[in-house]
Amino acid sequence: MIPAARKRLAAIANSQIFENALLSNYTRFAIGGPAAVFFDTDDEAAFVQALKTVAEVSVPYLVIGGGTNLVVSDEGFQGVVLHYTGSAIHQDRSLLRIGAGAVLQDVVDQSIALGLKGLETMTGIPGYLGGAVYGNAGAYGHSIQELVRAIRVYDGSKVVVMPNDECQFRYRTSILDYFIGRSRLFGAREQRTVCDRARHSHDPRREVSTVDEVRGQHLQEPARS
Length: 225
Ligand SMILES: Cc1cc2nc3c(=O)[nH]c(=O)nc-3n(C[C@H](O)[C@H](O)[C@H](O)COP(=O)(O)OP(=O)(O)OC[C@H]3O[C@@H](n4cnc5c(N)ncnc54)[C@H](O)[C@@H]3O)c2cc1C
What we know:
The chain has seven helices and 15 strands. With 225 residues, it is of the alpha+beta class. It folds into two domains: 2-84, Uridine Diphospho-n-acetylenolpyruvylglucosamine Reductase, domain 2 (2-Layer Sandwich), CATH 3.30.43; 89-203, Uridine Diphospho-n-acetylenolpyruvylglucosamine Reductase, domain 3, CATH 3.30.465.10. A hairpin with a 2-residue loop joins strand 9 and strand 10 (142-143). Helix 1 packs antiparallel against helix 2. The longest helix is centred in the first third of the chain and has 14 residues, at 44-57. It starts with a helix and ends in a 7-residue tail after the last strand. The structure holds flavin-adenine dinucleotide (FAD).
C-alpha cells in the first residue's frame, strides 16, 4: 500500500514528498520517529488530490498542521503524513480569507497590521490556523469560533464551504475533530504510536480544512480630547 501511495503522491504537481521524514522536525516538542511518506504542499488542489489518493489506496494517513498538539512515538508512523502549508491572506474589508497552513501568530500580526481587531486574543497560541479551527483554540476567555465565518473543507468527495453554524464548535473542539474519521486512519498499532486528543468516529467523512474565513472589526481611532 505504501509504495503505491508514494508513487501516486509523487506524481501530484506542486508538491513534495519525502521518505522516512523524521516527524521530530515537524512537532513542537521535537520528538517522533519517521513517517513512511511525508507529503508537503501549499496548493489546495494538490492537497485535495493527495487526500483522494490516500483514500483510494487505503493507506493510513494523518493530517498535521504546526505539530504543537501532537505527541509522536519514536517508532514513527507507518503511513502518509499530509502537511498543508497554504498560508495566503486575502483581505476583503473586515473579512480575511486565510490559508489553513498560516501560522496563527502571523495571522494575528497581519490582522493588526491591516487595522483589524478581534484576533489579538489568539496571541501566543502556537500552531497553524487549520489546527486552531480543528481544536477551536482560544485563550483569555475567547475561542476562534467567535471569529470564523466559514471554513473550506474537503468532505471526502468534494471541497465545500461550511458556515460557522455548521462547524459544531464547542470547547476546544469542532466538527473537524468529530468527523476526521480516525477509526479509518489508524489501525490499533498506529493508534498507540501516533496520538493526539483521542476521540473516535465511525463517520466515513474525512474533513480537512484548507481555507478559513476569519472576520475582524476595524480598529477605531482613539478619541481625541
Ligand atoms: C506551549 C503551548 C501553548 C499552547 N497554548 C494554547 C492556548 O493557549 N490555547 C489553545 O487553545 N491551545 C493551546 N495549545 C495547543 C495548540 O497550540 C493548539 O491546539 C493548536 O491550535 C494546534 O495547532 P497545530 O497547527 O499545531 O495542530 P497540530 O498539532 O498539527 O494538529 C492538531 C490536530 O489538528 C488537526 N489538523 C491540523 N491541521 C488541520 C487541517 N488543515 N485540517 C484538518 N485538521 C487539521 C490534526 O489532524 C490534529 O488532529 C498550546 C500548545 C503548546 C505546546
